[in-house]
Structures are given as structure tokens and as C-alpha cells.
Amino acid sequence: MARRSTPLLRRLLSPSLPPSPSPSTPLAGAVSRRTVTYMPRPGDGAPRGVTLIPGDGIGPLVTGAVRQVMEAMHAPVYFETYEVHGDMPTVPAEVIESIRRNKVCLKGGLATPVGGGVSSLNVQLRKELDLYASLVNCFNLPGLPTRHDNVDIVVIRENTEGEYSGLEHEVVPGVVESLKVITKFCSERIAKYAFEYAYLNNRKKVTAVHKANIMKLADGLFLESCREVAKKYPGIQYSEIIVDNCCMQLVSKPEQFDVMVTPNLYGNLVSNVAAGIAGGAGVMPGGNAGQDHAVFEQGASAGNVGNEKLVEQKKANPVALLLSSAMMLRHLQFPSFADRLETAVKRVIAEGKYRTKDLGGTSTTQEVTDAVIAKLG
Amino acid sequence: MARRSSSLLRQLVSSTSPSPPLPGHSGGARRTVTYMPRPGDGAPRAVTLIPGDGIGPLVTGAVRQAMEAMHAPVYFETYEVHGDMPTVPPAVIESIRRNKVCLKGGLATPVGGGVSSLNMQLRKELDLYASLVNCCNLPGLPTRHQGVDIVVIRENTEGEYSGLEHEVVPGVVESLKVITKFCSERIAKYAFEYAYLNNRKKVTAVHKANIMKLADGLFLESCREVASKYPSIQYNEIIVDNCSMQLVAKPEQFDVMVTPNLYGNLVSNTAAGIVGGTGVMPGGNVGQDHAIFEQGASAGNVGNDNIVEQKKANPVALLLSSAMMLRHLQFPSFADRLETAVKRVVAEGKYRTKDLGGTSTTQEVTDAVIANLA
């Protein structure tokens, strides 16, 4: 079906980044040589509506950047913007309506207040729309020096249950119980998603991250589901790793990991560590996918909306959200626009002239955005 | 009291370690304090020794050899405990209660199944509520991150590792995470007291209170209360996912970190990984009356069969932990000698086991340490 052909097309096109870039020009690694001619079906170019939630903090800044780039590309996407802030009690009903209608949403971060009675809106959105898989692709961008090389990790994290159920109560004053719920249903579908992803994207290995030596029943159930699904994909290597050992391996030998499937809390930490070693929250794209809907946002730490200084000086890094919007364009089946956008962003990073503070440069968001627009081929 | 003076002595001695290490003199501590032992201080102390599984017997053997070579006033009572026993034998617990100090290799916990972790059981029985891992760059050991000196203090008894799980209906499992004010308060007090006595500037609390508001909120409240009593120590809080990212991007911003059980496990492993791995980080579990010293991170990771066969396990972690133990027993001079020798061996770089990039065996490293004992 059309949805499955998109990843196939993407796979065919992904050798745009050769693993060992020729050292002659810094731009050689970022040029994609298309060997497939896109043959759109009639009506494929019809504009699609996308719900846009600017969010808090640096959110409006970076979503503004995405909007400018989309207009410059004349992408067949129009945005329906809704104001949502982290301190609202719930996500407004009309926003959920709009996402259900459009099926796709792009959002900046929503800052969740610490403590107090307000539950996280990020989590609430994911539960309402049943976005059960969170995907963060952490890879070394050519031209961006990091302490670790050869990183290409996709962290697939269960998004709805686990430690983030939000079920807590105070038994007696001074004693709090928090429930971590693991179900076979959710574990199975996240394992299926992970293996399907690995299969469609030509990935060799899936690693399940757990702590089943301590939490035997809970993580044991997660592992059982993963093992069952693994049996149906004999071409993909499956291994398991305890989460504390995993954190240590991530910082010493990240090249051993390929696709990682994890429950909710471990996935949060593992994806943040992986994003950190590959360049930071400012450059990693990510998305939350469910059966019917998808929400794209910056890969790791969706609740981290930067401090006020970044907002004032307008120096937030738009790269993460630009790459996420490229993922979104592929999801909407506009692969040519997605390729152009990704190529432009990767060229800007490879050149290294316009970099925001977290990558070691001094540019503002607007300068990076302009550079990307200039490079759109 | 005596316990506090040994930390002060340690602080004085550690402040004399030179900053730019010279190739032949790295780790040489110039002692400006003469130890004046009180009569009876040198009386031999008994220490319970649990070799454990996997690489455990190998590395505890290394510690034993080093202790004998130094003629340290310590004698070991060895007990065989293996990870697949249902409980820790009462004889062992008796011995630890009597000796008050224990040194152990790792105990491998079987994944799944019905056997609960013996590491956890020991900590709960003896109420060892604080786990301490000191992650610092060893001079001469190249890592991707420089300037790291982090102490992770982790609550050891409650939190996510309570072990209270049940299957509600087939296919649905609930696991309880319990946070109490009592435990949070005492771990916060321990962390600030540690920072105060060891001249540390900053304590960072690691939490996820934006999602788990009540549970981690309670933990944070306790930390804030205790922080208000130590005005000279900087206190801040960080969400655990941001913390993981900062650890790999800018680890030099962290000093002492106090965390609940699960986050502490992951944070201490990440911190240990960035400065050289499980093979070199010392750590200990401390309670009101007892203390157990073991390798800093991943106490359940006892290496694979390959390492055991070829006898290439890294003894550095357990040697440094036994130096911590010697200080705990108030034998600071022996502790200094042992630490100096180990640091010299690591700095020289001739005898390194596989995880540090070398090809030596455990025995070779141990012999090098013994040779370097001044």
C-alpha cells in the first residue's frame, strides 16, 4: 500500500549520505543522487492540512522557522495553528478535533510545570490519540564533530504506559506509591512496530532494553512480547540488554546499537543519552506515531523548551524541528519535498558557517533558517 | 569523632594530589599530615569477603593479594554466595553484622524467574540506604570527556526497585514504586553531609517530577528542606532526561548528584561509562551501622565467560573500593598507599586489561600494583 511504499522509496533514496564521504569537498556527502523518478498519482499533490502547535519557550521560534521553509519550498502543506501552553489543565478539545481530522501534527515543546497538580500535556496528547510509538533517530551529522563517531541509533519507545501512567497516590502522609503498568497488548504492539520498522528500513539488529533482573514480572512481560515478535523476523538479529549496562555501552561503544526498543522510562533516558552523544537535543528529529495519527516534534526532551535567554536572543536551534518536518513530509507522502529539505539542512550543517550556540556557533535561528532556504535545490 | 576526622584527613590528603601529573610521579600524594594513631588503632579488623560470581573471585583474589603485600591489619572471612541462591545465607548476614564491613564481588541475578536479586536483598536486610559511586577521570587514562569528577549518591532501598509486582490479569502487570519522606530525607541528609565534609560545592537532585509529581515531588521536597540547612552548598535540580544528555555533553557541570533508586542506577552507569567504564569506578553501599564495598556501577554485571576463562577482568575498581574500605576502617595510610599504587599503574599504562585498551591479565595488573606499593 502507499504507506509501505514510502519507506521503500526512502530506503532507495537514503544512500544520499554515503557512509564514508569523499574528503574532496565537504558538500559531497550531502548531495543526493536520485535514481528513482517519482511518478505521482493524480491528486497526490493536493495540499494537506497539518495542525501546528507552536508551544512554549523556543517552540514558536522553531515552528516559525519550519513555516518559512515550507513556504519557500511551496510544499503542498498548510498549517492550522493552535495556541497551547504547558500550564493549561488539558489540551483544548478543538486541537484534538483538528488533529483527528488532519491526522498529522507538528509541535514545539510544551513545558510541563514541575510538581503541582497539572499533568503533562505532552503525555496527555499521546494518550488521547494513542500514539504508542515514539521514534528518535540519533545519527552523526556529517560535518558536526562529536565525541562519538559512527552513531546511527533509532530508539523506539513505548509511549503510553509503563512508569508514566500518572497513577500515584499518597498512602499516608510521607509515603507515596506510584504504579508502573505493563500490559501484553502494549508491549506486543511496540515490539511489532520496532521489528516492522527495522524490516522496512533495512536495519540489521533490534535490541530490547529492560531491567528484568529486578522488575521480573513487569519487564519480563515486555521481554516475552519482544521475543515472540522476534521469532517472526528471522532475518533480523535480536538481543537484550539491561538498561544500566546499556547506558554505559552507549557512552563507550555506541556503534554496536542499531534499533532499540524500550518501555517508557528507559526509552526516555536512552533516547536522551543517544541524542546527546550524537549532537544534542537541538539536532535530533523524532516523532510519535499511532495507528491513525502522528505528531512530530524535536526528538528528545520534548518538555525542555530552553531557557529564557535562548528565547530572547532568538538563538534556538531549528535543525531538530526541520528534520522532524522532513519526516512529516515523508509521512504525508511528499518524498521529493522531504529530500530537498533534508539535503538543504544537512548541507548547512556540513558547511558549518551558520550554527547556533549549542553546536558551537553564534548564529541566530533566523540566520540558520535563511541559510537552509538558500540551499533548497 | 573519629569517623569525621578520617574524612577530614582524607580531604587534606586528597587536596595535595598534584594537578598536572608528571609521568613518573602521577598520583604521588605528598602527605602534609603525620598520622598519629591512638593505641590499639592498628588492631586487625575483620572484614567479610564475598567473592561472588563470574569475575568476582578473580578480582577479590587480587584485593586479597594486595592486602597481604601491604600487611594491612585486615583479615578476611570468606563466604561463598552465588546469585542463584534463594536468599543470602544467615551465616553471612551474621558475619557482616559482626564485622560491620564487607567487600564483595558481583552477584549475578538471573533474569526473569522467581529469584529476587541478592544484591538488593543484602542492601535491604542491612538497611544500606546510600550507594555512592565516585566517577572521576584517572590521570593517564584517555577518555572522551575531561574534567569529570562526579559523585552519584543514590537511594538504595526503595523507589522502583521495591520488588512489589503482581499480575492483575494475565497480560497486565503492575509494579509499585514507593517513595517515602523518611528515606528521601535521610538520603538527602547523607548527600549534603558528604558534600560538606568533602568540600564539594554543588549538589544536584535528579528527578522526573514533571511526570511523577507526587512521588518525585516528595523526593524533591525533602532535598529542598535539607538544602536550606546548608547555605554554603549550591543546590539545583535537573530532570533526568535532560541530565542524561548533559552528562554526555558537558559532564563537568556536575559535582554531587543525589537521586532516587532507578535514576541513580542509570545515571551512575552513564557517569561511570564516560570516565572509563565499570572496570575502574569504585563504589560502596553505606548504612547506619554497616557498609559494603563493591565495584561502583553495575554490581550485577559479572562479565561474560570469556573474561573469566582468560582471567582478564579489571581489578582496578575493586582495588579502589577496598581503598575506600580501608579509609572507612580508619586505616588512612594504607588506603593512601593502595590508591597511589593503583593510580600509578593506570597512569603508566603498561599493564591494562582489555576494557582499558590493553592486553594484560588480572594477575599482571595486580603484580604491578604490588610492585608499586611504596
The oligomeric status of these chains comes to homodimer
**Uncertain regions of chain A: pLDDT < 50 for 5+ in a row?**
15-32
Gap from first CA to last CA of chain A: 29 Å
Largest sheet of chain A: 10 strands, mixed
Mean pLDDT of chain A: 81
Number of extended strands of chain A: 12
Tell me what portion of residues of chain A adopts beta-strand conformation: 15-25%
Choose one word for the global shape of chain A. Answer: globular
Helix content percent band of chain A = 25-40%
Order of the strands making up the biggest sheet of chain A: 2-1-3-12-11-4-5-10-8-9
Name the helix and strand elements of chain A from N-terminus to C-terminus, one letter apiece.
Answer: HEHEHEHEEEEHEHEHEHEEHHHH
Radius of gyration of chain A: 20 Å
Total helices of chain A: the number is 12
SS content category of chain A:
alpha/beta
The pair of chains with the biggest contact is:
A-B, 68 and 69 residues
